[in-house]
Amino acid sequence: REEDIAGLQDVKRLIKNKVMRPLLRPEVHRGLYQPSSGILFFGPPGTGKTTLAKWIASESQAAFFCITPSTLTSKFYGESETLVSALFAVAARLAPSIIFIDEIDSVLSKRNEKEEESTTRMKNQLLTMMDGLNTPDDKFIVVIGATNRPEALDDAGMRRLSKRVYIPLPDAESIAQQIRAILKHHAQSMDIPFVDDLEWVAAYAQKLVGFNGSDIRNLCMKAAETVLLVGGMAGTGKSTLIGSLCHTLQERRQKRCYVINLDPAALHFPYKAHVDIRATVKYRKVMKKYNLGPNGAILTALNLYATKFEQLLAILKQREHEFDFVLVDTPGQIEVLNWSASGAIILSLLASQYPTVALYTMDSSRCAKPVVFVSNLLFSTALNS
């Protein structure tokens, strides 16, 4: 479906005009109106070239043949040419048809004297079949090739793939659309509420510019996988997990991190446990602003912010040459809507001065909530950046 393809508005508009319309009304597109029977999708890997081809077939109700290089090659003499002929014969019988050849540069690479005779014969047969498409007696067949190396294609193959469409990496807006689509698609199975309230996605998408569509989907899968693997409450190996994550960053990405633990049970910067700050002016203003009721974890974070945050910044300033970013280990029981009143104050101030990643670990009954999904997206980004 078109809504499943994030961004690429110009590409989709071109495909509708130049590809889908002829497929839907082949009787009109004849003579000088006859469109190209060969289309080349090229661009960086993982940008959705195969998905676009499937969308074309679905929307135009055309038979779809997804071909890989191995499909058309055989060790037996003459069988590769027979496979090519059979493919086009079946496509003609089921027309309108789309023949999608992934990694077409492997099938129609530049010919040279050193390549095997069987490979040359297969290429010649494929070129011959592509050249004879859509004569007045033929039914409509479109060959779509996909590659991230258009310069490797044979000149004769490029001539037959006369319509060329560049599929770029997604911009920030397209990335945000893809993340929203993934969250909404899996909202029920992952118990993700408030899928329409995703303002954070636009800001987060800016961090992923340069990622392709496949990278973004893999990032979401890693986040979901981390949610399933981590129980995270006290006594379940949380400290071991954090140490392992830090080690992973240092070994794989040569990035040093400084861990700040905001869990009430193990604060790096002790506070007076019996000091009740609910009566202070600062606390009342914050509680009124965010419409929050008393909460032990929120009080802890506010107490830390009110009494020790300047000390925390001073220590970080002294040691900033020792780390590349700050990893904040938050109290496991704080969910995103409550955490915004306390932890977000600390995180935003930290992030304004140092690259900061928040690590949330939750109990299994709430392990698929947005707070975990978002935080693991952030951490996966750190691992892959």
UniProtKB/TrEMBL annotation:
Entry-linked Gene3D superfamilies: 1.10.8.60, P-loop containing nucleotide triphosphate hydrolases
Molecular-function GO term, any one: ATP binding
This protein's record includes keyword RNA-binding: no
AAA+ ATPase domain: residues covered: 35-171, 223-378
Keyword ATP-binding in annotation: yes
InterPro entries: AAA+_ATPase, ATPase_AAA_core, CbxX/CfxQ, Gpn, MT-severing_AAA_ATPase, P-loop_NTPase
Keywords: ATP-binding, Coiled coil, GTP-binding, Hydrolase, Nucleotide-binding
Family according to the record: Belongs to the AAA ATPase family. Belongs to the GPN-loop GTPase family.
Name of the featured protein: Fidgetin-like protein 1
Species in which this protein is naturally found: Dermatophagoides pteronyssinus (European house dust mite)
